[in-house]
Design a protein that fits this description.
Layout: H1 2-25, H2 27-32, H3 36-41, H4 43-56, E1 63-71, E2 77-86, E3 89-96, E4 100-105, E5 110-114, E6 120-124, H5 126-141, E7 148-154, E8 158-164, E9 170-174, H6 178-188, H7 195-205, H8 212-215, E10 220-221
Parallel strand pairs: 2-10, 3-7, 4-8, 7-9
Antiparallel strand pairs: 1-2, 2-3, 4-5, 5-6
Length: 226
């Protein structure tokens, strides 16, 4: 029994060390402004890092930009969880590291999370949240709407129920489905960016991944649940 427990602990430590190395080497760590431990302990940031880890598997020429803080004309900033620039477009990710059952409609202001004991809570429509992020990116990059794809990604601990999404450029899924869905998109969609253009867009946006500490949390725009 002691040998078995030792083996389990050893496997856990090795896995944790591998994740830590990947985190340190990635752009996600420096862009978030958080330590590895701080990322794992923060539910939202850990969910974003897990999405980033999945997308890293797609390799080049795709470029990833986590934790973007784009400036707005009123002096505030808008936060974007993660952006991937690919040949077929700019993929904008809204991460929801939730559990329970999720009920939602593309046209409804609020969605519902139901937990095992029957407790319910509402949260603002994440598709609408991502639309505001994409609008800011469109203005920043001076690109048309068809260049952007909206991905709302829930934890694998979530069950998505009665999910009504009709827009072709919007997808709602569990985290484990990301790579498969994007590979499918890339196979079906035409290329709109060359590798050079991908790098140009990346260079234009990358300065906005390192501004979180400077602007302060109080100046980051949050969605008003009205």
């Amino acid at each position: 029994m002691e040998t078995f427990l030792f083996f389990i602990i050893l496997v856990f430590l090795i896995a944790g060390r591998m994740i830590h190395i990947r985190y340190v080497k990635s752009d996600n760590g420096s862009a978030s402004g958080r330590s590895f431990a701080g990322t794992l302990l923060d539910k939202g940031t850990s969910g974003e890092f897990m999405i980033y880890s999945h997308l890293e598997k797609l390799g080049e020429p795709n470029r990833l930009l986590p934790h973007l803080h784009l400036p707005k004309s009123d002096g505030t900033t808008i936060y974007i969880d993660l952006v991937m620039i690919a040949r077929t477009g700019i993929y904008v990710f809204e991460s929801k590291n939730f559990s329970g059952c999720i009920f939602g409609d593309e046209d409804s202001r609020y969605w519902t999370q139901t937990m095992k004991r029957g407790t319910k809570q509402q949260f603002y429509n994440p598709i609408w949240q991502n639309e505001s992020r994409i609008s800011s990116l469109k203005r920043q990059l001076a690109l048309e709407a068809d260049a952007f794809k909206s991905y709302v990604v829930f934890s694998d601990q979530c069950t998505l129920k009665k999910m009504y999404v009709r827009s072709g450029c919007v997808k709602v899924m569990n985290r484990s489905m990301i790579v498969r869905e994007i590979i499918k998109d890339m196979a079906e969609l035409p290329d709109i960016f060359t590798p050079l253009e991908i790098n140009q867009i990346y260079s234009e946006l990358v300065p906005y991944t390192h501004t979180a500490a400077a602007i302060g949390q109080a100046r980051i725009e949050t969605v008003r649940l009205e």
